[in-house]
Write a structure and sequence with these properties.
single chain; about 375 residues; alpha/beta; Rossmann fold; Ubiquitin-like (UB roll); 5-stranded mixed sheet; 10 helices; 15 strands; binds guanosine-5'-triphosphate
Amino acid sequence: MATIEEQIEELEKEIANTKKNKATEAHIGKLKAKIAKLAMEKEKRLETIKAGGGSKGFYVKKAGNATVALVGFPSVGKSTLLNQLTGAHSEVGAYHFTTLDVVPGVMEYNHAKIQILDMPGLIKDASRGKGRGREVIAAARSADIILLVVDIFNPDLRVLLKELYNSAIRLNQHAPDVNITTAQQGGIIVKPTLKLTKITVDTIKDMVAAYGHINATVVVREDIDVEQMLDVLAGNRVYIKAVMAINKVDLAKPGQLEAVQEMHRQYKSVGVSAATGYNMDALKQEIYDQIDMIRIYLKPQGQEADMKEPLIVKRGNSVGDVCELIHRDFKNAFRYAMVWGKSAKFPGQTVGMDHIVEDEDILCIIVKRS
Ligand SMILES: Nc1nc2c(ncn2[C@@H]2O[C@H](COP(=O)(O)OP(=O)(O)OP(=O)(O)O)[C@@H](O)[C@H]2O)c(=O)[nH]1
């Protein structure tokens, strides 16, 4: 019996040997669905091994702050850029990343604290676990924004983008609007709610079957293609916004920046010089705009809320996340909080650390006296 790796290799060979055209698209989709299934099994097995024997420790995401991952080839200027973006505020402990060569820093902008992670240069085949690639990718997968850092003299990103894609990271895309519900009987039923132009109902059926489903209803509400159907089946894709920094413009010739921007026109890009600090504010603004931030007004107990300087947090953050942003010890001393605003059932509702805050909430956190 062939190992999972061998089976995957066999299928990949078959795909490589299949001419790609309209007629073979369905067949390739089916093969890819089989690979996705095997990859899922492999991943499960790895996790069992890790959980069982002295796990290497996983990347722990720091709650509260929004996180930006700097991703780019070696020597494009990521470390220099991190220093520019975070300035004097970059002195944060590396202890959250004990298993990683990831350097974190904090960028402060518009009252927001945004964590920036400098990844070691992403290399070819990182998605297959080469080098420290797996860990870098794990960190990138948990980021809110990926900042693609490009050297203006070396703007070809195809290898890197392919690595990200193979690592189940989808940039500037949304999850396809497709729902799979499994059942005990009835076979595979595909129900498109609109005309499909890039994939047929039969291909979807074949792919769902190849992935191992026997009875399932698939509701398709979007004009998806084969790759998107695969994303739905695999289920492990993360959808992350991407922004691009085109670096070293201090050395560029006239027109060069525009040419690189045109080459990468699907991304919002800012030409910068990490060496001189040129255009850092524009880049910070672009990053800020891409993160869905909300304002929280803090009210010290027995006093008026500070309506001038809100705390800026990520949408979806909890009271606990807010505590952590204020001060590391706040969470330990937490007793309860009172909240006014959109997230409160009534003004001054008492809530715990799990309560999710909303834009323009007023929050009063009650801590134990020391
Ligand atoms: N002219 C110019 N040089 C730059 C700029 N940014 C970075 N450099 C230089 O490019 C080289 C690489 O910069 P780093 O910041 O170390 O690059 P990195 O991407 O962190 O590299 P790795 O750590 O290998 O991934 C250094 O010699 C920098 O001084 C820039 O905007 N303009």
